[in-house]
Amino acid sequence: MSYFKINKIDAIDSTNRALKRQYHASKIVHGEVLWALDQQKGKGQRESRWVSEPNKNLTFSVFLSPEKLALPTVFVLNCWVALAVRSALISFGIPTVSIKWPNDILSENKKICGLLIENLYRGKKHNGSIVGIGLNVNQLEFSDLKRASSMQLAAGRPFVVEEVMMKILENLTVYLTSGMAVSDSFSAFNKALFGLGEKRSFLAEDQAFQATVDSVNEHGELILKTEDDQYRTFQHKTVEWVY
Ligand code: BTN
Questions:
Q1: Beta 199-204 vs 207-216: how paired, if at all?
Q2: Does this model's pTM top 0.70?
Q3: What are the phi and psi torsion angles at 215 (to 5°)?
Q4: Which of 22, 32, 39, 194, when mutated, tests ligand 1's pocket best, judged by the most ligand atoms within 8 Å of its CB?
Q5: To which H or E segment does residue 10 belong?
Q6: 16 CA to middle of ligand 1, Å?
């Protein structure tokens, strides 16, 4: 029996928003998945939009409840989701799949998937997570988004979107149920990091600088080694990749 219960719908504003509405109405259970064929107002990171051509891509969200799944740290969920998507893409033959901190999955140096994990709190207590996954599967045109790609563009053949989603969910089930040690999850995540050990350009507080990607720590912060051999730690949204 599947760990997840999948609800497929033709169209919605945003699967993340819809699950949040269900959460606030107390009409949601652990493992519920909302999969939309046409997501019309997709939500991206940093208040951006996630635009996805209808019927060609995957746009779905999963609700997880800490009552059923005690997370050792909130960030470990990001690791598991990113690793589950990455393994699925590798199993479909997508070349050079890496995780670009904090939430992008790339093939070569192009983004094919974005993750939006929204943690919900009651007071200070973690009360649920909505895991949103937007994966470009068979879309071929991205107009002005030069760094965007899809599975089909990367592999040169189309894919059945449902098969891709089922593979991601199968992989995610393994992470959620295997009791994998947090340290092993972090090291697998770090090994898959885009730019690991490479000198890259960044922007923080309006200052451009070059630094070597060192690792991501257990709080989900990016650690960079600067040109004067200092280690600097950045929280989400305090540094941008320039590339
Ligand atoms: C990003 O900006 O890279 C994150 C994009 C996340 C998009 C997915 S699509 C399914 C889910 N529903 C949303 O509204 N957003 C996420």
A1: antiparallel
A2: yes
A3: -175, 175
A4: 39
A5: strand 5-12
A6: 7
